Amino acid sequence: MKHYLLLCFLVCMSCKESAKKTEALVEEAPVVETEVVKETSDLKVYNFTEIEPLLHKTGDKIYVVNFWATWCAPCVKELPYFEKITEDYANKDVEVLLVSLDFSKQYETKLIPFIKTHQLKSEVVALNDPDSNAWIPKVDPEWSGSIPATIIYKGNTRKFFEKSFTYEELQTEINQFLN
Q1: What does the alpha-carbon distance between residue 87 and residue 96 come to, in Å, rounded to a whole number?
Q2: β-strand partners of 127
Q3: Distance between CA atoms of 36 and 54, rounded to whole angstroms?
């Protein structure tokens, strides 16, 4: 029992000493002013059942749906090309939808700031559905689940791509739907 009490005393004392050292370090550290920004957003978050109709719209418009995430370097690299399509094809009935697969706990800290920092003009929605084994084959039976992945469709004509695009490649694929 004496050994137990002695052990408890030593642990408590070392914790106090550690806390004092930490406090001293904090006091000596330079004060860095940071701006804390509370992000508010109109980010639409869907499960797959809710997003599926966006993958099968009808009409004469061309739809370009890109699955991406902020943590995916090839996805981020090609985003400006989708933004350029949104701008260059605004008068040609082409609509770009960027479907983020970012983790829901990072919407406020990563995704929303990313959208704002990069001033994305295309519509961005988040897909929050943990049962990817169920919904990935519904997007395309050949999709392995890797991103970036893109669907381009108009009416019943549909193409699926599990790859990164250059602007020229994306333009070539979309132009095939214009003719």
Answers
A1: 10
A2: 46
A3: 35
Q: What is the pLDDT of residues 71-82, one digit of tens each?
A: 999 999 999 999
Q: Which helix (H) or strand (E) holds 13?
A: helix 2-28
Q: Could you report the per-residue pLDDT of 42-66, keeping only the tens digit for each?
A: 799 999 999 999 999 998 899 999 9
Cβ-Cβ contacts under 8 Å for 32 (sequence gap 6 or more): none
User: pTM score, two decimals?
Assistant: 0.76
Give dist(CA 90, CA 94) in Å, integer. 6
Give the other-Cβ count within 10 Å of 129's Cβ.
Answer: 15
Q: Which of 176, 154, 168 is nearest to 65 (CA)?
A: 154
To the nearest 10°, report the CA torsion of 144, 57, 126, 72. Answer: 40
